[in-house]
Backbone:
């Protein structure tokens, strides 16, 4: 129960950061990428602020033996730069550049009641579900005996 | 045009970073929206409760900001609906295969100096910039 409540409060901090920073505003995001046009460099400062806090904070946190409310840290261990990572990330950037929404920006925008955010998140979840189905089908084919 | 907002963006970014540090400190988890959402989709992961709470908190945040500050949050979506749907589908597939998005790779991963996250972030920033250039300056779109 405590874990759930604390996660909700941390989500509130995350969403507040998105709302204040402008990261959930598609017009602002698209202008950040439009270096040749109506460039708005604000989002570089969002990344800078987020990275300073997280890089310093992680140093202290990850030195501890375990997190406060869980038995262990869940950290990704992969180090390989493989095709799914790079092609998936390339596709994500294309979709971000088309729509102006990224997942972390769109979810707090749902709370604004903006229809475009709901449409985007619906399509994005459908995309995740489709990708998961494709991956499972591919893995099933690979593991099938010849 | 959108106004350059250095202070608000820096402060908002710091809050995003703070949330990443807190979620690692309390739950030992990466504060990446892609990973958190994927665990909420069927078949739901067994630890769905903290994920649902994080998402609910994020959705509730704009109302809180509005109540506390009394100021509206600027929002403008210039993209036609069919393109939002196409963009959303591509983003969903991309972040699933790419194992993360701006929050997971761009903030949490780079903060840990993960080579995969640095490569992923460089890639999606580059393709997003190229896409906006093509849409706006080659095709003359939104």
Residues:
């Amino acid at each position: 129960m405590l874990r759930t409540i604390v996660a909700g409060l941390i989500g509130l901090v995350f969403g507040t950061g998105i709302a204040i920073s402008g990261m959930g505003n598609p017009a602002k995001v698209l202008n950040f990428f439009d270096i040749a046009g109506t460039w708005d460099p604000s989002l570089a400062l969002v990344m800078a602020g987020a990275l300073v806090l997280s890089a310093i904070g992680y140093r202290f946190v990850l030195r501890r033996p375990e997190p406060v409310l869980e038995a262990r840290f869940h950290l990704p261990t992969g180090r390989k730069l493989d095709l799914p990572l790079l092609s998936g990330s390339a596709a994500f950037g294309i979709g971000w550049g088309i729509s102006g929404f990224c997942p972390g920006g769109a979810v707090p925008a749902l709370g604004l009641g903006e229809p475009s955010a709901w449409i985007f998140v619906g399509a994005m979840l459908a995309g995740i579900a489709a990708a998961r189905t494709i991956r499972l089908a591919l893995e099933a084919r690979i593991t099938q005996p010849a | 045009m959108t106004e350059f907002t250095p202070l608000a963006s820096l402060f908002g970014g710091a809050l995003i970073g703070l949330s990443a540090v807190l979620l690692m400190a309390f739950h030992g988890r990466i504060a990446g929206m892609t990973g958190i959402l994927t665990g909420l989709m069927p078949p739901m992961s067994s630890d769905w409760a903290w994920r649902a709470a994080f998402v609910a908190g994020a959705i509730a945040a704009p109302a809180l900001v509005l109540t506390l500050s009394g100021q509206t949050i600027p929002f403008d979506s210039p993209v036609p609906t069919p393109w939002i749907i196409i963009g959303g589908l591509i983003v969903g597939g991309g972040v699933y295969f790419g194992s993360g998005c701006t929050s997971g790779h761009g903030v949490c991963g780079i903060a840990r100096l993960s080579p995969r996250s640095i490569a992923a972030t460089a890639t999606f920033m580059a393709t997003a910039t190229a896409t906006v250039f093509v849409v706006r300056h080659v095709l003359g779109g939104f």
Notes: Chain A touches chain B through 114 residues (CB under 8 Å). DSSP finds six helices and no strands in chain A. The first helix of chain A runs from residue 2 to 21.
